[in-house]
Design goal:
Helix content of chain A: over 70%
Strand content of chain A: under 5%
Number of strands of chain B: 0
Radius of gyration of chain A: 23 Å
Strand content of chain B: under 5%
Distance between the termini of chain A: 52 Å
Helix content of chain B: over 70%
Largest sheet of chain A: none
Shape of chain B: elongated
Oligomer: heterodimer
Largest interface: A-B, 30 and 28 residues
Shape of chain A: elongated
Number of domains of chain A: 1
Order of helices and strands of chain A: HHHHHHH
Structural class of chain A: mainly alpha
Chain lengths: 254, 222
């Protein structure tokens, strides 16, 4: 047992449930405290931007969401690889749990972005390269969830979704590149990436840390729920089998 | 390798003799393009400006309709299982079927595009560029589409799902295809740049598509 790696040890769902159950309250507490602190910094400490005024506060939610939108996809891709190559029993649980959370953060990034765009650009939506590629990322999340939900056999759905996730990983950089290229032909950069002063950068980093912890809390919780759901399903199937078995033996006795 | 070409020829013969497969895609292409002026107004200047985009998007939709044909019939009647047990690797089977789809759908659609371009007041001089970019770009549509067709074999509501899965993957082809045509039609430079990108995308797709599609098919035959 001692020469097992951590991922191998976690392959036992019971051990995973025990460990994650102990970890979860600490993770949840830490994310709440750090997000709270980040919001305090954002609203009471960080100065309003000289050009953007108080709308810059949206950034403290927008930027971490956008970062987590991408990180969740990377997590799904790693999990999918783990499922297809190593057949790790928890890899699919991880991929399945991460997809809706990633999609939610992607949507949050899009919505906060458009709310920020209204005062900045005068419109809720511009076909900026970044906005467009995040929108396409959102479509990929929708595709992953739709494919999984439309195949009845859960084990098959898991593997096919993993194939799609890996195809998406290969194509995402190409899509991003093509959208960047497309946009530069149409309009100059909107100048989103300017150097950021420390008075705004530090609250932003704290916020990013807090949101990342929030993501892991939600992900862990969703994984636990998925494992419990599968156990309930297995128990129900066993019960059906037993009922059918007793029914059949009763019929045979008559 | 001979098995590969036998399979390509078989799929092409099926596409021709089944009847309706190619004609439906062409008819759909014509109707979608014809609807655009009805929706946007008959202003010829506007139409010639958006012609490249309309032609490419309508082509994507027309090709999308025929994607399920790549694997569906052979999966349902069991021919795909026979192919999977044959000597030819399943990756090459998927490649042969994607290639047949490209020849039977991508090329006819590309050849029809200049005629539809006239409806949209596209400069007639850009017809060779139009056919060239579409012939160079449509392999990506067939080979990436095969992934979606393979993934949705056992899915409920497969057709709608296929569109959701595959259309985001077509974005790079769409972008470079439109910029290449616009470079010629509207007289800006950068045609060869976009054209080279289209060829690169199609070549990449011919590698990625069969590998992923074969993996998806293999999972469903078990």
């Amino acid at each position: 047992m001692t020469n097992q790696s951590i991922t191998q040890k976690l392959a036992n769902p019971t051990r995973f449930m025990g460990l994650s159950g102990q970890l979860l309250p600490w993770l949840a507490g830490a994310s709440a405290a750090i997000i709270g602190y980040a919001m305090y910094l954002a609203f009471f400490v960080a100065p309003p931007d000289y050009q953007q005024g108080h709308t810059v506060k949206i950034m403290f939610i927008h930027v971490p969401s956008a970062w987590l939108a991408m990180m969740a996809y990377v997590l799904i891709a790693i999990s999918s690889f783990g499922l297809l190559v190593f057949r790790h029993p928890l890899a699919d649980v991880s991929a399945k749990a991460a997809a809706p959370i990633g999609a939610a953060f992607t949507l949050l990034a899009l919505i906060t972005g458009s709310l920020w765009g209204k005062p900045m650009w005068g419109t809720y939506w511009v076909w900026d390269a970044r906005l467009t590629s995040v929108l396409l990322l959102f479509f990929l999340y929708l595709g992953l969830m739709a494919l999984r939900s439309s195949i009845e056999d859960e084990a098959l759905a898991a593997k096919l979704t993993a194939v799609l996730a890996l195809v998406g990983v290969v194509l995402l950089p190409i899509i991003k590149f093509s959208v960047d290229w497309w946009n530069t032909l149409h309009q100059p950069s909107t100048g989103l990436t300017t150097t950021v002063h420390a008075s705004i950068r530090i609250p932003l980093l704290v916020s990013a840390l807090g949101f990342s912890l929030l993501f892991f809390t939600l992900h862990l919780k969703a994984m636990r729920n998925e494992i419990l759901r599968r156990r309930v399903k297995a128990l129900r199937m066993a019960e059906v089998d037993r009922a059918q078995g007793s029914h059949a033996s009763a019929a045979a006795a008559e | 390798m001979s098995g590969f070409w036998v399979l390509v020829r078989r799929d092409l013969q099926l596409a021709v003799r089944e009847g309706g497969a190619i004609g439906t895609a062409l008819g759909f292409y014509l109707i979608v393009v014809a609807l655009m002026p009805l929706g946007l107004g008959p202003d010829l200047n506007l139409l010639s400006r958006i012609a490249a985009g309309v032609l490419w998007i309508a082509l994507l939709l027309a090709a999308l309709l025929s994607l399920p044909r790549i694997f569906e019939a052979d999966y349902e009647d069991g021919a795909l299982e026979v192919m999977a047990t044959a000597d030819l690797p399943l990756e090459l089977v998927a490649a042969a079927k994607s290639l047949a789809h490209w020849i039977s759908t991508g090329i006819p659609l590309a050849l029809m595009a200049p005629a539809l371009g006239i409806l949209l007041n596209l400069d007639i001089g850009s017809a060779p560029a139009l056919i060239g970019t579409m012939v160079a770009g449509t392999p990506a549509i067939s080979f990436l589409g095969a992934i979606g067709a393979a993934l949705t074999l056992k899915a409920r509501r497969g057709g709608l799902l296929l569109a959701l899965l595959v259309l985001p993957l077509y974005v790079p082809t769409l972008i470079f295809g439109i910029t290449a045509i616009n470079a010629v039609a509207l007289g800006s430079d950068g045609f060869w740049q976009s054209f080279a990108m289209l060829v690169a995308l199609s070549m990449g797709a011919t590698v990625l598509g069969p590998v992923a599609a074969a993996a998806a098919v293999r999972l469903q035959l078990q």
